[in-house]
């Protein structure tokens, strides 16, 4: 696919995304008892099937950013660190992944609230497209403090003026995490204590909104005495009565915060990975819910096209897709980033579920003999 074709394909995706609000990515962060840190997230797109792939990038690989209109000639950067990431449309457009230093980064849509710096043709060499920012971060940095400093010295742009803006989550193996949002043309960098991210509005608003749910507690509420009546919960979990269940970004932020916070800490980072996928099952978006009845444009298994977890302790990326819920893994420890070639592969070799038949004993049991005479 040529650059112009790639630009057109991405323009359709991000242009329609901005128009329809199909931006339901949800991210969480878990810590395990062996000092492991796991970041995990979903990615949603209900308009059509995206070209989803994983990309392996070696050290020394050189990339150049695209510019508005699909022009090539933006910032050039080479990889100090090899990395693995999940990409959309084009192998270089990694939207979530991890590098060999253990740094994780991900892009989330941020429509209606972000604003990049005005594009300056005289600053091409210092300008990078938003869909290549994750690749730049994973290529060049090993700590969030390095990213926090460097982000002040570059210009981020969108290659299509119709498109939604994005914001980013960056996490290091220590658990330190930042959120990057461009507002009024300037980067705002926030220390993330929660480890949760969805979409709009801006991150500080999402934190304030949590105060609306101060009444939520794990476990069972009541009983409560009202006059002569005693009110009791109908079942377990009533302490979360009022937890929002819709798919808007603020509601998903609240739901992710409470489900993550009150999940049981796991002994190992691998166990935390498995737990992360279970938590994120709550955020799978059934395809028909994003459109009026009968108006869904395609019939896919889900609007949640894939889910990823990065284990920064064991240096492994895990994912499953809307076509196949079987977990697949990419172990960065087994990759020689000094010698491997740049490559990308579809997330699904075949677009079907892996079904393992249950074991069935098909022979009749032999009758027991009576030895008592």
Give a quick rundown of the structure.
With 373 residues, the protein is an alpha+beta fold. The protein has helices at 3-20, 133-140, 144-150, 203-209, 249-261, 269-280; strands at residues 27-31, 37-44, 52-57, 62-66, 72-78, 83-88, 94-99, 104-109, 127-129, 155-157, 166-171, 177-183, 186-191, 224-226, 229-231, 304-311, 316-321, 328-331, 343-346. The chain has one domain (3-346): 4-Layer Sandwich (Penicillin V Acylase, Chain A).
Question: What does the model show?
Answer:
This protein has 373 residues and is α+β, with helices and mostly antiparallel strands. It has one domain (3-346): Penicillin V Acylase, Chain A (4-Layer Sandwich), CATH 3.60.60.10. Helices cover 17% and strands 27% of the residues. It is built from six helices and 19 strands. An eight-stranded antiparallel sheet has the order 13-12-11-8-7-6-3-19, covered by helices on one side. It has a five-stranded antiparallel sheet with strand order 1-2-16-17-18. A two-stranded antiparallel ribbon has the order 4-5. The chain starts with a helix and ends in a 27-residue tail after the last strand.
The overall strand count is 19
Largest sheet: 8 strands, antiparallel
What share of residues are in beta strands? Answer: 25-35%
| Run of helices and strands | HEEEEEEEEEHHEEEEHEEHHEEEE
How much is the radius of gyration in Å?
Answer: 23 Å
The shape is globular
Q: Specify the CATH architecture.
A: 4-Layer Sandwich
Widest sheet: strand ordering: 13-12-11-8-7-6-3-19
CATH class: Alpha Beta
Question: How many domains, as an integer?
Answer: 1
Secondary structure class reads alpha+beta
With helices defined by DSSP (H or I, 4 residues minimum), what is the helix count? 6
Mean pLDDT score = 91
**Which regions are unreliable across 5 or more consecutive residues at pLDDT < 50?**
15-21
Distance between the termini: 83 Å
What's the CATH H-level superfamily name?
Answer: Penicillin V Acylase, Chain A
Which fold name corresponds to the CATH topology? Penicillin V Acylase, Chain A
Helix amount, in percent?
10-25%
């Amino acid at each position: 696919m040529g650059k112009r074709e790639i630009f057109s394909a991405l323009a359709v995706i991000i242009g329609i995304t901005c128009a329809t609000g199909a931006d339901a990515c949800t991210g969480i962060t878990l810590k395990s008892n062996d000092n492991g840190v796991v970041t995990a997230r979903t990615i949603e797109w209900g308009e059509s099937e995206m070209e989803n792939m994983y990309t392996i990038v070696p050290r020394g690989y050189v990339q150049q950013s695209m510019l508005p209109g699909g022009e090539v000639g933006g910032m050039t950067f080479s990889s100090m660190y090899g990395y693995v990431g999940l990409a959309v449309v084009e192998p270089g457009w990694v939207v979530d992944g991890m590098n060999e230093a253990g740094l994780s980064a991900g892009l989330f849509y941020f429509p209606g609230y972000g604003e990049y710096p005005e594009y300056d043709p005289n600053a091409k060499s210092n300008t990078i497209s938003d869909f290549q920012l994750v690749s730049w971060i994973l290529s060049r940095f090993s700590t969030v403090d390095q990213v926090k400093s460097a982000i002040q010295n570059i210009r981020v742009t969108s290659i299509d003026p119709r498109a939604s803006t994005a914001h980013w989550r960056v996490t290091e193996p220590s658990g330190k995490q930042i959120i990057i949002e461009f507002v009024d043309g300037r980067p705002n960098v926030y220390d993330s204590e929660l480890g949760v991210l969805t979409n709009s509005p801006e991150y500080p608003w999402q934190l304030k909104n949590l105060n609306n749910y101060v009444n939520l507690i794990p476990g069972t509420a009541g009983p409560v005495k009202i006059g002569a009546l005693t009110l009791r919960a109908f079942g377990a979990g009533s302490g979360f009565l009022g937890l929002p269940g819709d798919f808007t970004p603020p509601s998903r932020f609240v739901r992710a915060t409470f489900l993550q916070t009150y999940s049981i800490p796991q002994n190992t980072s691998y166990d935390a990975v498995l737990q992360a996928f279970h938590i994120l099952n709550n955020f799978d978006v059934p395809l028909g819910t994003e459109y009026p009845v009968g108006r869904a444009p395609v019939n896919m298994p889900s609007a949640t096209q894939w889910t990823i977890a990065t284990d920064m302790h064991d240096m492994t990326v895990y994912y499953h897709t809307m076509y196949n819920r079987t977990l697949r893994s990419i172990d960065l420890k087994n990759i020689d980033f000094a010698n491997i070639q740049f490559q990308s592969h579809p997330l699904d070799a075949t677009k079907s579920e892996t079904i393992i038949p249950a074991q069935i004993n098909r022979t009749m049991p032999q009758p027991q003999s009576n030895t008592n005479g």
